[in-house]
Specification:
Elements lengths: L5 H12 L3 H5 L6 H13 L9 E5 L8 E10 L5 E8 L8 H15 L5 E2 L7 H9 L18
């Protein structure tokens, strides 16, 4: 992690979530400026873990501009657990194993920080993410309901 990556992480987060149900549940994810504020808040958290925070880019050649592919952030919560924040892969890069890679890197960052357990939250309608998390060993421990407005058609 390097603080100079904050804007790129915010833009990647925006590209990952702007057209997803998560942006309806958490409106900040549907706006670039909201993603910047969120990244700043995560970065300033006392338990922010640089070793569990990653950005993936793809640059097909040296002359081309790098594509933002995905991002994840990790923090140590007040209970001493690793909290995975905002796993996101941009639509063109989904289904390539990058989500698995991000989660495994974050879990390794938690392990290196001495954290033995980790958790995350996922929107119940995000079935692809739920399948991924279950495949990696995560289990449902709690269901939380939040009232949101219906997504526009």
């Amino acid at each position: 992690w390097d603080d100079s990556l904050l804007d790129a992480c915010a833009k990647a987060k925006y590209l990952c979530f702007r057209d997803e149900i998560d942006a309806n549940v958490f409106p900040c994810l549907g706006e670039l400026e909201g993603c910047r504020r969120l990244m700043n808040e995560i970065r300033r958290k006392q338990g922010f873990l640089p070793g569990a925070t990653w950005l993936i880019t793809y640059q097909p050649n040296r002359r081309g501009r790098a594509d933002l592919c995905g991002t994840i952030q990790g923090v140590c919560d007040r209970r001493g657990l690793g909290a995975i924040q905002n796993v996101g892969i941009t639509p063109p890069h989904r289904g390539t194993g990058l989500g698995t890679g991000l989660i495994l890197r974050a879990l390794e960052g938690f392990r290196q920080a001495g954290l033995l357990r980790a958790y995350l939250e996922v929107t119940s309608q995000n079935t692809g993410a739920i399948r991924l998390y279950r495949r990696l060993g995560f289990q449902v421990t709690k269901t939380v309901y939040k009232a949101v407005e219906a997504m526009p058609a």
